[in-house]
Design brief:
The complex is a heterodimer of chains A (167) and B (199).
Chain A: H1 3-13, H2 19-31, H3 33-56, H4 65-80, H5 89-97, H6 99-127, H7 141-149
Helix pairs in contact in A: 1-3
Chain B: H1 4-15, H2 19-41, H3 46-60, H4 72-101, H5 110-120, H6 126-134, H7 137-148, H8 153-159, H9 164-185, H10 189-197
Helix pairs in contact in B: 1-2, 2-3, 2-4, 3-4, 4-8, 6-9, 7-9, 8-9
Classes of the chains: A mainly alpha (167), B mainly alpha (199).
Chain lengths: 167, 199
């Protein structure tokens, strides 16, 4: 039997061939008894399968909506509880954000440290007058010389006479 | 074919959490999904589970359905086919050892028999059903989707994720294989010998 025609038989049965191919197939079928027999057999098979489909369409379904609804509700409840099961901050830091968090924390820490150091000096300065004695307000040549030799940020009550109120 | 506007309304409502709309979708489409799963799995127990799982997934992911890409039933079949494949794979893994070690084991255990019996009682030839089930997984799936689920080749290509051309080729090869299988079985040899002896 011509294998080419064999390949065309299902398309012929289903009416999917172009008019030209259909004419060629029909011409071959008039000459070839084997192909005619094969066509009949496959057509019978296709018909039998389509009939089986009709029978199957009467198969009662046992899938239950109540089960589907219950499973959907259970999944929704599980989803609603999901926030309680979110990873701990440590896990988030380790696995999700990693080095970005570490880098940004380092920057923030550095900025905070420098700010605290500067604000610490500024904050301490006004407190000095409360432990000062009135006599220390007088700037002498000795104290002026001594101040000039001291480090700028040195904590010394005698360093801020002009900021303190008079007695 | 169902009214598209009505289906779209059900889908929209179900997406917004409307339970009656979800139930309407289930009641409309579950018989077709169940029958297809029963044919693919060839047993009477698992199609129920596959159908329910399919709808739980589909109804929770309705917003992912794209009507421009496929018909709604094809989308449902795609989900169901994937579950049937997994189910069959697991079943094969669990039942193979019994088949190996039980000498008298014939093809088809009790649950497999029941669907065949149900069909045979309604006029479907046992040999035909057995031949369909004996095809290789890809051919069997294509033949069932084409003839027992009534899908077009484009729909089979979409649902089986193989493309329309491959789907057509698989159905054609499947039919040729079925024809060969049934011809081989044909008339038992002793009857045939008696028949020609009488001539």
């Amino acid at each position: 039997m011509d294998m080419h025609i064999s390949d065309q038989l299902l398309a012929y049965i289903e009416g999917r061939l172009t008019p030209e191919t259909r004419t060629q197939v029909e011409a071959h079928l008039t000459e070839c008894a084997d192909c005619r027999a094969e066509l009949d057999a496959r057509r019978g098979l296709a018909t039998e399968l389509v009939n089986a489909r009709r029978t199957l369409s009467r198969l009662p379904t046992r899938a239950r909506w109540e089960t589907v609804r219950a499973q959907m509700r259970a999944q929704t409840r599980a989803q609603l509880r999901l926030p309680l099961r979110t990873p701990s901050p440590l896990r988030l830091w380790r696995f999700r954000f990693g080095w970005q968090v570490a880098a940004s924390m380092a920057v923030v820490l550095a900025v905070l440290t420098s700010n605290l150091a500067l604000s610490g000096v500024r904050a301490e300065t006004p407190s000095v007058p409360f432990i000062q004695t009135p006599a220390a307000h007088v700037v002498t040549a000795d104290t002026a010389t001594a101040q000039a030799t001291r480090p700028l940020l040195h904590r010394d009550s005698t360093f801020t006479p002009t900021l303190t109120p008079g007695p | 074919m169902m009214n598209d506007e009505r289906l779209n309304q059900w889908i929209d409502d179900a997406c917004r959490g409307d339970e009656p709309a979800a139930e309407a979708i289930f009641r409309r489409y579950s018989p077709a999904v169940f029958r297809m799963a029963a044919s693919l799995l060839n047993n009477a127990d698992d199609p129920e589970e596959v159908t329910q799982d399919t709808f739980v997934y589909a109804l929770r992911n309705l917003s992912r359905y794209d009507p421009t890409r496929s018909a709604f039933q094809t989308w449902l079949f795609t989900i169901a086919i994937s579950r049937c494949r997994n189910k069959r794979r697991r079943k094969w893994l669990t039942t193979l050892p019994l088949g190996w070690f039980t000498r008298n084991e014939t093809r088809g255990t009790a649950p497999l028999r029941s669907l065949e019996d149900w069909l045979a009682a309604r006029g479907v030839r046992r040999e035909l059903w057995a031949a369909v089930q004996s095809l290789s997984p890809k051919l069997r799936e294509a033949v069932i989707l084409r003839f027992l689920a009534g899908m077009s080749y484009a729909e089979i290509g979409e649902a089986a994720d193989c493309g329309a051309k491959a789907a057509e080729s698989r159905v054609r090869t499947g039919i040729a294989a079925l024809r060969k299988r049934l011809a081989e079985q044909g008339v038992p040899q002793d009857e045939w010998l008696e028949a020609i002896a009488d001539m």
